[in-house]
Amino acid sequence: MLSRFCYRHPPLRWAAFSLFLLAFAAPELRADFAKGLAAYKTGDFAAAHKEFLESAQAGEPPAMLSLAFLYLHGEGVKVDYREAVRWLESAAEKGLAPAQHSLALAYYEGRGVPRNTAIAANYFESAALQGLADAQYNLGVLYARGDGVKQDWARARFWHEKAAEQGVTDSELALGAMYANGLGVARDYVEAARWFGKAAQQGNERARSALERFGGPVAPAPMPAPTVSTELPEKPSAPAAPAPAPKRNFWRKAPAPLTLSEFQALQARAVTGEAAAQLELGIHYYHGDSVKRSLLRAYVWAKRAALKGDAGGEAMSKGMYWELDEQQRKIAERLLAPGEKP
Fold first, then answer.
1. Is the same domain home to 107 and 138?
2. Those residues with Cβ within 8 angstroms of residue 296's Cβ, 6 or more apart along the chain or in another chain
3. Is 246 helix (H, G, I), strand (E, B) or coil?
4. What is the pTM of this model?
5. Residues of 4-17 as b/e, b for ≥16 C-beta within 10 angstroms?
6. Banded model confidence at residue 212, pLDDT cuts 50, 70, 90
């Protein structure tokens, strides 16, 4: 019976992005960007490129994203993934969620940049925290797969729930499968049927098929065979000298700015679990150096370092906890896995 509800890792989603939605998201845009939108609507992609470029060079994030869109799809210009990524990076650094999501996909697929799923996961999280449903779904997929991040069914469920709240049927289907198989949650057939039903009502055929076949106990999901280490234990070494206590409020001192490649390397080290990199990334988010400032991201990365025993991360997360508002604290608690809450 398990095959009826077997959890299959779904593909990632490209955001349902339309250039014209940007006009409604930011009505006070430069005139040349508005001209670019008008030209794009008529199919005059060369004129759209010219107007978008002028607006992007003036620092308009939606124009940067639109320019990247043209290079990704070869409209008015030749397809150029590297040039697309360059503009996506500029828009992402200014905090534009669709750009962060598209940049994450570029890193995930290796378009215009070397493939790096850890960096992709960090950009997905940036966009997901701003409420972008497709980024929330994709982050749920990565946590379920253990792709670019450590596999964590609790976090997978959290992000799929966020996406499902916005009507993403693939997340509803994923939640149904998770409850049916007891992945990250206690097995609950009633809850599984509820999620399958939500997805089926929106026309998801896989969910409808699951509901039609639903009935009878589902066999327990097979557990992977335990791996046995063949490495000999290391000889005990002399205890290391205790690390010096971090200076009080050390994180309030602005760090040296990083180049784009340096910041990307730092992200990759942090996402893969290096405590020192997590603390450093938190400090950069705290000051807004090399990335858009975010107290929430600063706290979460410092706390992740603290949970690995890093004294600096412990001092920073405790010291800046009271700078967060109540909503930010609640989000931070949910972002940290069970047992990792502040």
1. no
2. 129, 324, 328, 331, 332
3. coil
4. 0.65
5. bbebeebebbebee
6. confident
Q: What is the mean pLDDT of the chain?
A: 78
Among residues 112, 146, 172, which one ends one of the domains? 112
The DSSP result for 118-186, as a single string, is HHHHHHHHHHHHTT-HHHHHHHHHHHHHTSSS---HHHHHHHHHHHHHTT-HHHHHHHHHHHHHTSSS-
Range(s) of the domain holding residue 296: 250-335
Each residue of 116-139: b (16+ CB within 10 Å) or e? Answer: bbbbbbbbbbbbbbbebbbbbbbb
Instruction: From residue 131, give the alpha-carbon distance in Å to each of 97, 100, 126, 150, 224.
Output: 8, 12, 9, 22, 34
- Contact call for residues 148 and 271 (beta carbons, < 8 A): yes
Q: From 127, 14, 27, select the one nearest 72 (Cα to Cα).
A: 14
* Same-domain check for residues 82 and 137: no
Quote the longest CA-to-CA distance of the chain. 73
Phi first, then psi, for residue 15 (nearest 5°) are: -60, 145
Instruction: Give the total number of structural domains in the chain.
Output: 3
Q: Which pLDDT band, with edges at 50, 70 and 90, does 274 fall under? A: confident
For 213, the token pair is 């076949």
Contact 17, 69 (CB under 8 A): yes
Report the pLDDT averaged over residues 59-85: 90
Are residues 209 and 258 located together in one domain of the fold? Answer: no
| Higher per-residue pLDDT: 223 or 271 | 271
SS3 32: helix
